[in-house]
Amino acid sequence: SFTMSTYLFVYDLVQFCGHSWIFTNMIIRFMSFGKDSLADTFYSIGLVMRLCQLLSLLEILHILTGIDKSRLFPRFLQITERIIVLFVVISSQEEVQGKSVVCILFFLWNLLDVVRYTYNMLARMGIYYLPLTWLNFSLCIPLYPLSVLAKAFAICVSLPYFESFGTYSIELPFPLAFSIYFPYVLKTYLLVLFTGMCFNIQNLFSERKAHLGTSNIKRKRS
Questions:
Q1: Which of 1, 47, 67, 183 has the fewest CB neighbours in a 10 Å radius?
Q2: Cis, peptide link before residue 145, omega less than 30° from 0
């Protein structure tokens, strides 16, 4: 319906503005301060980054309610990966926030999202530019695996701090006598992360084939 299309357009516009602000801010800071800007990337843009990622949870609801025809499981994996790494790993450990991997991770996320939300906004209006379509469905294929590697590296960097501070580790008293050692949970999640990456890469290739094939047919007809 027109109302739902308008809502989705506004959602994409808000996300585009947020990620564009982050992406532009990162570039300007790097050009102004060089490598020194990497250390406080999280402190300068972390709040907006967290807001954008929280807002992205709505995309799961969009698919569940049927107003977005994207596949649920691949999108669910991509969103939950970011939420876990950003809120559980990076936000909880101040020592990790100043690492260069955080800046690299944010750069990859926002580069992908600026392109994706630009494509989505134009698609809501029935506008399809072949170069933008190609970029949207091609750029993610090399950058998504790189972002997964950056997530894995961020987790590995955070492990000594989770071990030292005992963050999120739980030890229940007797008679339960049950404990959760969070570094083990993160190490297990690394396996889930790379398994999900293999699944998502297959989905990205299938989406690229479907959309670029459709775009080429439309171009030939026009």
A1: 1
A2: no
